[in-house]
Amino acid sequence: MKKQGGFTLLEMLAALLLMALCSTVLLVAFGQSARSLLQVTHSDRLSHAALSVMDQEASGPLANGVRQGELDGIAWQLRIAQQPGRLGQPHLFRLDLTVSEGPRSAQFSTLKLRGASL
């Protein structure tokens, strides 16, 4: 009898098993990268909202207290506290902003300098 070339059933099963294993690893990696991309998108949305609120609220006069509001479905709370300083010197304010959307929240802080009142 003539020997035929080709793969045996066992070799085909081993190749299919290897292919299934590699496919599973790739699908898991794609799933994790999609979740990471979604988290980055939410984080960017909160960061952009924080920048907008800081620009809007800190452009005018600053006074000790708490301000809050909502911007495009993102709730925010801004705490403003004047830092101790010398009389006649410019006033230094600390601004602490908390932004939240659903279960996600982020906190931002900055300092703003304002000229002394005459």
Automatic annotation (TrEMBL):
GO terms for cellular component: membrane; type II protein secretion system complex. It comes from the Bacteria. It is found in: Membrane. It is a single-pass membrane protein. Keywords: Membrane, Methylation, Transmembrane, Transmembrane helix. Pfam families: N_methyl. One of its GO terms (biological process) is protein secretion by the type II secretion system. This is Prepilin-type N-terminal cleavage/methylation domain-containing protein.
